[in-house]
Amino acid sequence: MIVVMNYGAGEEQIAAVVARLEQAGFQAHVSRGVERTIIGVVGDRTRVAEMALEAMPGVERVVPILQPYKMVCRAFNENGSVVRVGHLEIGGEAVHVMAGPCAVESREQLLAAARAVKAAGATILRGGAYKPRTSPYSFQGLEERGLEILAEAREETGLLVVTEVVDPRTVELVARYADILQIGARNMQNFCLLREVARVDKPVLLKRGPSATIEEWLMAAEYVMLGGNHRIILCERGIRGFDSYTRNTLDLTAVPVVKHHSHLPVVVDPSHAIGKWRFVPPMALAAVAAGADGLLVEVHPDPMEALCDGPQSLTPENFAAMMERLRRVAAAVGRRIAEPQAPVALAG
Ligand code: PEP
Ligand code: MN
To answer: Whose CA is nearest to atom 6 of ligand 1?
Structure first.
């Protein structure tokens, strides 16, 4: 259920509804939109009906939510959520491009990638410091040293940093360095990890599992929201198909469908979906045309030498060319590609 408050309902009225719900044993989650406040109610909905909440001052209506996910459903924020990350807003008019290598391999490699993606117009730097791979013999990431390098790149370029957290025990550590915590596709239903990132004051980029339905994906997001973290960005990264010509199948239908059912912003990762660099730009353009709020793209200064995902990584030149075309597609659909800001000079 959600309780929709009137335009201009006062803080005391909101507090009174929350208090009444909590006294009756419900959990109440307040979401303050630009125009009105909505209170998500978790608990036995047959009992909510008995409480006559609609008789309380400031309450406009009580709406049952029929979907299994309650807080991430569209009705909870009809205008769509805008997720604030530092000085950036994801889910607004501007489309953000997050780009960088699959893995942080060295200081030189990451700084070269960061400078290149910033020059081409990315606003957020990606790079994995923890890389549990399909094979235990593959490169596993630089771990905390990788996080330090990401933080150094942020300081130099002003790009914000998205990086994956793979273990509930390292959530706090990763959150100290990262601006956005990425939950990898294989961890989408790692509920311990979801509960842990829900407790941190950092936005979460939640990737869709390779075989997850849209409902399972939204239920995973519900874990994070219910746990107290409302800043969630969904990421479609391809689902397992039967065709071996691509790594996965990019489910672009997920963009409009998820935006219809949920208020959360949706970004698209064409790199892991397709697995071949040549096909990344056309699908990135299609994702923006379909309404994606951002892109996550792998870019490596020298893809042939990459320790991870070289075949799907764009060179800086190909990335810059893609960005030019993205600006035109974004304009055609009434959006714009966000531009990076100059780094803020530190005082003293
Ligand atoms: C990644 O973005 O580096 C990654 C491992 O992606 P996914 O979890 O989508 O496979
Ligand atoms: Mn990768």
So the answer is: 184
- What pLDDT sits at residue 348? 47
CA of 27 to the centre of ligand 2 (A): 38
Same structural domain, 7 and 130: no
Q: Evaluate if residue 347 carries a pLDDT over 70.
A: no
- With 0-12 / 13-18 / 19 or more C-beta atoms within 10 angstroms meaning exposed / middle / buried, residue 11 is exposed
Q: Is position 71 within any domain?
A: no
The SS3 of residue 327 is: helix
Q: Is 127 in the pocket of ligand 1 (CB under 6 A)?
A: no
CB 35 within 8 A of CB 58: no
Question: Apex CA 206: angle with CA 297 and CA 226, to 5°?
Answer: 160
Is 57 in the same domain as 171? no
181 and 56, same domain (yes or no): no
73 C-alpha to ligand 1 centroid (Å): 25
How many structural domains are present in the chain? Answer: 2
Q: Indicate if 254 and 112 belong to the same structural domain.
A: yes
73 found inside a domain: no
Kindly state if the Cβ of 131 falls inside 6 Å of ligand 1.
no
Pocket lining: 102 vs ligand 1, CB cutoff 6 Å: yes
Binding site membership of 185 for ligand 1 (Cβ less than 6 Å) = yes
Q: Which residues form the domain of 211? A: 83-337
Q: Tell me the per-residue pLDDT of 204-219, one tens digit each, with 9 for 90 and over.
A: 999 999 999 999 999 9
